[in-house]
Amino acid sequence: MRGALPGLSLALLAAERGARLCAIIHYLVHGQLAWFGLTIACVVPGYAAQLLSILWFRADGHPPGCWLLVLHLLQLGLWRRYWDVLWMRTEAREVLAQLGDVCVLRLLEALLQSLPHLLLQAYVVVAVDPAAFIPGISAGLSLVSLAWALVSYSHFTCLLKPGHLSLPAMALLCLLLWRTGMLGTRVLALVLFARLYSFWVFAVAGVHWLLMSFWLVAQQTDIVTQPCRWRLFNCLVGAVYIICYINVRPGPSKTKVSVFYAVST
């Protein structure tokens, strides 16, 4: 399972990037410059994960050279990290640390880049051009890639717990199907609401974001300790909770998940 999971993650990442590039070319060839520009804009937030990856390389005692900086500039830094995990021949603890870094970075990139792209392409397919094949494929791959990023993060958190082994393939498949279904229905609901009520979708999303942010504050999450960063962290995770739930505190999460679904339904 050590090589299978990073290999699958790398393959999904490559497929998603390829489909995104095809969607960009599709809009450019057909003269749909507005959708072309918005699709390009969805790529920009991904640089946050690339910057964090460079900082972590430096913190680990590996100052990035010119080649590594070029890879991150091309948003290929996570590809390099997956490749390193696949070919590492060190002890298991070091491999787990590197796998944890790339899982967290991939989740951050998926939430900042894949999720906006998914929402945009889903809106194009549902509300603008139902016959748009390439944007539909791109949206589908972004959905699966985002779901897999969440599954990979959950799998890594399980590996951190004492006595926990790697999840079997069927368990990972069930988690992937659950995440894909949850994300797909929420994205579809937002897109249909936006099609019917236009900009009112931002009001609904804003109310949901405020509720989730206040809920996180009430939980007293201690992942970030500095006051300014703590507020920013709660605001960012509150925005993520519009689409999906991520457990940000150790321990049982059944009650929190129930509250999340009760508010979000």
UniProtKB/TrEMBL annotation:
Name the keywords, alphabetized: Cell membrane, Membrane, Transmembrane, Transmembrane helix
Localization? Cell membrane; Membrane
Q: What is its main location?
A: membrane
Which InterPro entries does this chain map to? XK-rel, XK-related_scramblase
- A Pfam family found in this protein is XK-related
Record bears the keyword Transmembrane helix: yes
> How does the entry describe its membrane topology?
Multi-pass membrane protein
Is Nucleus given among the entry's keywords? no
Where does the record place a coiled coil? none
Which residues span the membrane?
33-57, 64-83, 132-153, 165-193, 199-218, 230-248
Task: Give an example GO cellular component term for this record.
Answer: plasma membrane
Protein family according to the UniProt entry: Belongs to the XK family.
Put simply, this protein is called XK-related protein
Organism expressing this protein natively: Pitta sordida
